[in-house]
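Notes on consecutive records. When two proteins share a document, each keeps its own sequence and its own token line. Never mix them. Below: protein one.
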Amino acid sequence: MPVKGAVECLFEMGFQEEETHLVFPKNASVQRLKRIRDLIAAERNRRTAANKSIPISPPLSASAHVQPSQPETSFRARPFFNDTSTQLPAQTFRPATDNSARSLLATLKTHFQQVLMYEDMRLQQKALACIPVEDLKKIANEKLLCATKLDPESTINLEDFLLLELLRWFKEDFFQWIDSVCCSTCGQVTESSGSLPPSSEDQRWGAERVENHLCRKCHTSNRFPRYNHAEKLLETRRGRCGEWANCFTLCCRAMGFEARFVWCTTDHVWTEVYSTSQKRWLHCDPCENVCDKPLLYEIGWGKKLSYIFAFSKDEVVDVSWRYSCKHTELLTRRTQLGEGLLRQTINKLNSERKHFLPQERKQELLERYIVELVEFISPKTPNPGELGGRISGSVLWKVTRGETGTHAQNHGFSFLATEKEKNSKVISSQIQCS
């Protein structure tokens, strides 16, 4: 099959893998095959019709003003099911015999297990106690009313606006980004100076790594445990992208959103939230306060993507294709293990997790997955909001990680006022000269 995602569709239909080809067993369900075929056709027709006659809403943004939908090119462009001009490299099947392959598979299993913590009702209640739910709902409702007046045909609902407000609140009022900690003795900014052994209390909250931040003024050593448990992060409320995405995903689940923890092998993590009104998964990065800008990392930050996985209580999905518009190039970097082995591992994990799910839920997940596959194999075009470099982190940190953005030079700067700055009518800025 010439496009990524087609093989997965065939597996869902009931095809099985032989040594050199796929076969449809005699005992397989023809009705299931027809049902999935019809789902794909319906989604394809919906997208094709949308591009011909229906304006597409711009990507959701927690910091943008509400505006009516404008026709634009987006990732919901025409599907290319029959486009044989884009031939993908042949994929080999090989066992996980090297350390990099084993490490990737082990990380998949670890994250798939860790996301179950977000389903702890006690933990969700603790998160809700931190969130100003009614205030966020009030603001979301006001923006929804304004949007409805401007664009009566918009499909975005209160839940979507509530998600944007949750993102804004988390970024501006709740969580703190940490480059270097302030000295606990004199309050001066410290410098990173290696690591320290974790204590038993650190390890209790998943901190296997403790950064040492040394104060050059009073020579105090300051510990910064990298906690990996959402409950502890509700208390500390600080960290980098790992801590941000971990805690934000919990907050989304506490608010009733279906949410996924997303891990990218190029050292970044974020969240996906399912929109019931748009019937698709939305990219949400709490560090950047952005929503529905999946090409931000590849086009805006200049990342060379390879593997990206989304983990929820029900399944793990390879979502790499959502975040790239250069699929052929991306495939050349997926060399840690064979695609066949990766697919088999994911299918096995999902089969075990879904075993006890009600049939209705299994069907719902299947239909969503079909829609995702159609999205994955549809060509994408970057939107203006996906062209900028990274916002969170120090300049040195972003330069070191190569995340200043391929479009950052000679394009000026955009300053977005926070709600506090809008109310006070004063914008604060800091300029670092080096």
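Protein two starts on the next line and is unrelated to protein one.
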Amino acid sequence: MADIKRRHLSKHAGHWCNGLILQLLQITHRQWTFRNGTVHLKGPDGLSPRQTTALVRRCEDLLWTDPSTLLDED
């Protein structure tokens, strides 16, 4: 305790709490912006990463479709 006083490092409890709350808010905000960027980010095609992945998987599945099972052209 004497070392803290000698170095003038002591903080009032209110200042310490304010600093803690500020850091917690900053962490929460960074997590929120990361999530929004991950969930709501749209590519040039207007699709989210999750939608793009689902579309690519569907296209890959359809590549193996037997042409004889497709409808005839009109």
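For the record: DSSP finds three helices and no strands in the chain.
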